[in-house]
Structures
1.
Amino acid sequence: MRILVTGGAGFIGSHLIDRLMAANHDVVCLDNFYTGRKQNLLKWINHPFFELIRHDITEPIRLEVDQIYHLACPASPVHYQSNPVKTVKTNVMGTLYMLGLAKRVKARFLLASTSEVYGDPAVHPQPETYWGNVNPIGIRSCYDEGKRVAETLTFDYHRQNQVDVRVARIFNTYGPRMLFQDGRVVSNFVAQALQGEALTVYGSGEQTRSFCYVSDLVEGLIRLMNSDQTGPINLGNPDEYTILQLAKQIQNLINPEASIKFEPLPMDDPQRRRPDISQAQKHLGWQPMVPLSEGLQQTVEDFSNRLSDRVSPA
Ligand code: NAD
Ligand code: UDP
């Protein structure tokens, strides 16, 4: 099959492309390299069945494909908040153009949505039927509301134009290839501990998140795309940790001497988050396989290798 991955040079997108290429698909990647890196795709660059196109999805493009995995959008609060208007454009115009493309060529379309559509959830854990608690004018809104509109567009194209759609609501995902400067919690703590810096816990550290290893997530995306389920379907790991527990686990794993420092909690930071994955279990036969301890080890190994590449002489 000819498969388009938008945002394919990013963290999740590049792992997805590795799986699609290994399954002998013809893969086209669109990326503007805002948070993605060509290095993530180096092994495919000269492959006859791989094409990398530098393109900003806020502009239209014409392509012939059978499936579209639509991932292009910065995912870290630091990046999506640095140009919030662009984040809204990417989610609204970018998703509109990709749905228009899917409609024209009759491709199946999968939206990488997010647990952020639940905002600071009043229901715990979060099932897909929960409509969320999102501040429409806060600093996270460009992303949260952007993704909510992206979901709306996806379902309107489905109802109005019969586009074959899938919506995945992805919960916090981590693993190798996250950027050092990504700003998300796992990459921050790992980079800080490896470089002998204090781990920065925001607020009291009692807020919770549930962390899914990237290989599990990619498996879920592929199963959803190839299922008969429209979704939305939650994809995430239901093992829930406080941020302080995560800090201590990474401290113990990398450097028990590393200190922890407390910094102010950013505005609208959700207090707790944990997916209800019963729909994914029932309809996709999917559940995460990689425990946090194992996923963190893989992540630390990748970060240490990249760090030694950086400091060693050319
Ligand atoms: P990432 O920032 O590593 O990847 C995003 C990719 O999109 C990058 O390669 C970036 O350059 C590209 N991009 C951004 N704006 C673009 C534009 N206008 N045109 C073309 N390319 C553009 O993030 P990620 O963690 O790999 O996330 C991928 C997708 O999954 C995103 O849509 C994100 O919202 C969603 N998601 C991720 C998580 C997570 O925990 N990682 C959680 C929920 C949802
Ligand atoms: N966080 C933290 N220290 C950091 C980065 C993040 O304590 O260096 C906290 C952040 O305030 C939030 C949680 O970790 O409560 C997860 O943050 P992240 O940016 O990874 O994802 P999101 O908030 O989008 O779930």
2.
Amino acid sequence: MAEDTVTMDKIVALCKRRGFIFPSSEIYGGLGSTYDFGHYGVLLKTNVKGEWWRSLLQQRDDVVALDSAILQHPRVWEASGHVGGFSDPMVDCKQCGQRFRADHLDQLACPNKPSKQPGEGPECELTEAREFNLMFETTVGPLKDSGSIAYLRPETAQGIFINFKNVLQFSRKKPPFGIAQIGKSFRNEITPGNFIFRTREFEQMEMEFFVPPAEADKWFEFWSTERQRWYTDLGIRPDHLQLRVHEQDELSHYSSGTSDIEYLFPIGWSELEGIANRGDFDLKQHTEFSGEKLEYFDQASGEKYVPHVIEPAAGADRATLAFLVDAYDEEEIEGDVRTVLRLHPRLSPVKVAVLPLVKKDGQPELAREAFESLRGLMTTEYDEGGSIGKRYRRQDEIGTPWCVTIDHDSIDDRTVTIRERDSLSQERVAIDDLPALLSAKLAAPWQSPKLG
Ligand code: ATP
């Protein structure tokens, strides 16, 4: 595939056309940068999250799950540094009234024509940079006064730190061990955009890995490598992924080391996931602000210490976008352009589509039989409407790796055709072998055909 085949516009159009993702509140004219996930989008993102859980909870035995509340005590955000500290430097333009992130000016455009970088148009008049807090405020209870202010969480991580003691007590784990959580986070981003890359409401997949202080560097390296492997195992092309180590002056107040896993999106290399060495900052802050001692007592050595924390923090929506971009392909077949999502089969919203060639002669009944034998094993679709060519195109565009076609001969000999999405090869097999054959295909390793 030529590198420039995929553009953000093509991804947005495909997502709308095939019911993955729509602009939110569309019948009211939309609400900037908010999106709703349709059927295939839900299935795809659920698979992304499922693979994340699987890699931590099923393939390891040192990580436990948590689902903490979105609304937390306001003191949580004072302790974490978000009240006061969680802000981006912003500049306003006195001419057009727009607000821009001061550190992103070179990637942004002034809304006036001819469009230039903010500050570079003839009319632009930018203010000095000011700090702008990104947390959404709300009030809890019937009275709107300063005592009732709460925040929608801007990250899931703090919900993990404040539960450290609970988890330690009930999980029977000792450092090194991790607590993982997936959930919605909210940030009043000033410059959201690029589809679901940056939105104000998004899902995070975060893990806090608590380690003895002397092991922090080792685990930081480990998770930096491990998390890249997760993406490449799920089909992301390694040459589209890179690790960028933060410079000293880029580090957050809590971090003694951070690396970003970046993906080559159509907008250029951008952060997909951050891996941070947070030291003992968070547990110490919450100990100070809550008065609860958050530490680990090692009964074997009689030693008491505050664990250090390594945090791989990913975005479920951003990862979903990266998988979509990496999978998008167009190829010319007999004069027609075929659009196809070459997703890893484990991520594909639908694994197999069962298609009778015609809607008569007993074919729908036999196709239904095949469908019933598969649906308990994997996400299966039955589709009998429209020409077979159109039905194949539809499945290609939603990334279905296998189509099973029932034809005239199937009625006589109970054989069917399996069509492969990527190679377009066709294989004739016994209908009764489908469950075992397709389960084996789904379990087999997979590599993007775009790697050549
Ligand atoms: P950025 O520099 O892009 O603003 P960040 O460094 O503030 O991101 P983190 O706080 O490290 O992001 O959050 C971890 C992950 O959560 C990010 O790598 C990204 O995948 C996801 N994420 C953060 N902000 C957003 C957002 N506004 N929309 C979608 N995903 C987001």
3.
Amino acid sequence: MRITHVDIGGCEGCSFVLIRATKKLQGIEFKSRLLGKFEIENEEMIIVSGAVCLNSEKVDVLKELREKAKILVAFGSCASVGGITRYCRGGQEPKPEHMTFQPINAVVDVDYAIPGCPPSPRMLKPFIDSFVSGKQSNYMQIFKAVAKVKRLSGFDLIDDVVLQNICIGCGACILSCPNGALQMVGGKPDLIVEKCIRCGTCYVRCPRASQILVRRYIK
Ligand code: SF4
Ligand code: SF4
């Protein structure tokens, strides 16, 4: 299987994981634009890392990638749900000229989204294997569901999980929040609203919320 990777605006942490992890995978021919320039042909799978800056040429790059990809995958939280780039206002490293970032499904249809900052390399092997072997497991549904989500935040987590009384108090959301916007109060997470940058990480890390996404978007 031919897989091509293109980064369109991230810190390269996801790229690093992807390039290292794919070296160990069997049955694929992998190339990354970070490792050298090449023309992108019609590809079986294109994996995009990084969020898309709406006031940049990356919008057109992304549209072209969509046209050329049989399967388009968002890799990492920035590409999948916006991640830490969500509330950029310009002036931030590492892309100080960029102002407005969105997950890539704000511009093109995405087939699968694998969130994580960066995603665990262990997630990549079963994901790729499912295409190489042609056997897709239920495990893939969450990646399909996240690909359809346009916006997620700590507010959604509180509304959909905590206020619905299905929170199990595991604390995964609090540990995953990059901005310290969640705290445990009475055994359940509480949102410090002014700190939430709407990166979506807590929602996709919550075992209850991920089931909600699959039910909402796939079944
Ligand atoms: Fe992101 Fe934290 Fe807000 Fe959740 S609560 S969306 S992890 S900033
Ligand atoms: Fe509750 Fe989900 Fe947070 Fe666990 S990850 S504490 S279930 S909201």
